[in-house]
Design goal:
The chain is α+β, with helices and mostly antiparallel strands. The chain has ten helices and 13 strands. The strands form three sheets. A six-stranded antiparallel β-sheet has the order 2-1-4-5-6-7. A four-stranded parallel β-sheet has the order 3-13-12-8, with helices on both faces. A three-stranded antiparallel β-sheet has the order 9-10-11. A hairpin with a 2-residue loop joins strand 4 and strand 5. It is rod-shaped and about 210 Å long. The chain starts with a strand and ends in a 9-residue tail after the last strand.
Length: 529
Amino acid sequence: MKLLSLHIENFGKLSNFDYVFQDGINIINQANGWGKTTFACFLKAMFYGMEKRGRLKAYLADRSRFAPWQGGVYGGSVIFEHNQKVYKVLRTFSQTPEGDRFELVDVKTGSISRDFSTRIGEEIFGVGSDTFSVTTFFGQGELEGEINDEVRAFLTGANGLNADMQASEGAIGKLDKSIKNLKNQIPSMIEINQVQNKKEALNEKLRELEENKKIIAEGISVREEKLNSLTNNVDHYCDNEIIEKDDKTTKQSQRTEPKTNKILSAIFFVLFIAFAVACGLSYSNVILCSVFGAISLILMILSLIFILKTRKYFDKKDKLENEISSLKQKLHFEQADAEFVKQRADLEKEIAVLEERLVYINERILRYINEVEEVENNLNFAIKHKKELEEKISLLLLVKDFILKAKQNISVRFVEPMQKKLVEMLSVLTNKNMRTQIDFDFNIKLDTPIGLMEKQFLSQGSKDLVEICKRFALVESVFSDVKPFIVLDDPFVNLDDATLNNAINLTTELSKKYQIIYLTCHSSRVLKA
């Protein structure tokens, strides 16, 4: 691919400007403010258009940046040669992409060509706009370009698998999103500890309730024993009183009967003596005997009457004593019964209160048991869920690590060729055998007297030196089929004289392979065409 000429109708401060390109080096030496950067951006815009990058506001800002200062048609054309055919690409731009115009003309026939579309830059050079910028555009103060996935794919030889590489990036993005979502779902240890503490608090309450239940049950048992003992004592007391009453009655009868028997015995004994005397006197005096017999008979009758009355008296006396004893015993029973009833009622009331408290405690125990069971289920679920999520995260991390290692393994295989090219160019610029180290992300460490140092710790001139060589090495590595044009927008401003001279010689050497547009503002940095 070779640029032949361009016409800028209006683009930034450049208006109605024409330029004819030649093979090798094309030098534009103009003062600051002439529009050298505008010129370089116009070339890129002709092949890649003003593609959307980032937010819409930034996108519109780029369009506003290069909008014609003097008004008029915003755009221009470039004539180039590719595959032995000459084309003319025309583009005009408006404030929004909808108003843009693209046209490709076959210069030989003058007809519209369908060989390429609005994505002509990608179709010819095989890379996107960003990759084209970080390889072929050496902007002043913008030498350091990020190695994107497309560049990495070319460097690793995986450009034929670009779709797969993009798919892997998408997969990694989805994995990261899934891992983040899973991490957000994992119960924190604070939440788990809170549930654990709640469970322990409930168990502590259960233990307290069980202790209270035990104390109350013991209280009920003690009072029931007292109640049973009280009942037994009352029954025993009543039985003893009845036995004592029977004993008293028996003793009274026993006391009365011997006394009566003694009186009767004495009376009969006297009568017997009297009768015996009467019988002894009958032999001597019949009259005296009759009188004495009659008197004895009367005495016997009187004795019998006395005995009967005496027995009746003792029986009545015993009956009264028994009645008095019964009344005393009844009164005593009633007093004892009243005390028993009071004590029994007090004990039964205490037992009822304790049983009511026991029912309440049992209800609380049951409720706490249910709560403990629910909390324990929640805790087990949280721990199980946490474990499952962590296992899923571990699995996703393994998958992500596998993809990253696969990409890294692909890249590592091709780091050495890139490093070799970089060393060759650094050696040309510095006249030294430079030692470098490039990692998976193509970060460069440069050999210094104190050892390998990362680029950010170098001077600005050394940084530019590394980036210039890196850019040239990237062009050599990325563009193998089509040789692109290279735009150097005064990239050597920070180089010392010796290194500048070497950089000019290297660029001159590369111009044998590439068409180079070199923009500068100082004659000291002008290349030899």
